[in-house]
Amino acid sequence: MRLVTVGSLRASVIGLGCNQFGPTCDPEQTRRVVRTALDAGINFFDVADEYGPDGVAEEYLGRGLAGRRDEAVIATKFGLRLRGDPATGGAGARWIARAAEDSLRRLATDHIDLYQQHFPDPGVPQEETLTALDRLVRDGKVLQVGVCNMAPDAIEQRLGIARHAGLTMPASVQDR
What we know:
By secondary structure, this protein is α/β, with parallel strands linked by helices. It has one domain (about 5-175): NADP-dependent oxidoreductase domain (TIM Barrel, Alpha-Beta Barrel). It has five helices and eight strands; from the N terminus they run βββαβαβαβαβαβ. Strand 5 (about 75-80), helix 3 (about 95-105) and strand 6 (about 110-115) form a beta-alpha-beta unit. Helix 2 crosses helix 3 (about 95-105). It is globular and about 45 Å long.
């Protein structure tokens, strides 16, 4: 399997989307899918805190990677409201810290390889979001950060802010 560089990460050019872990795949089916992917050389697993009810996709992925975590690149996302709860979601510093801890627990790991903002949050200054993500990187909880579903001008703005403030630069962009 060919690998590509994503910041400091080496990820397979083919990734496994994990949004059906929980809704379609039970824990044992998930384990078989994850192990088959790893055996085929796929090491990139794309998940989010909102996939499956109550983050179950992250939980199932963490179980599926048990004993083989070091072979995987886990990309997970934050930002959407969970179960429509207005106390969750967004890109504010408090939510990012809480969401990361919840994802780490569900994934049964000590770090997230690639932590991505799922959707823009116009109600939060990008400086706040970037500072919160940079703190996670400095604390060793996250290796790389990225963005999803963000317009090119917003990405350019984010890069400029990060560069100017000396904060962790986004290493990835995931769009449709």
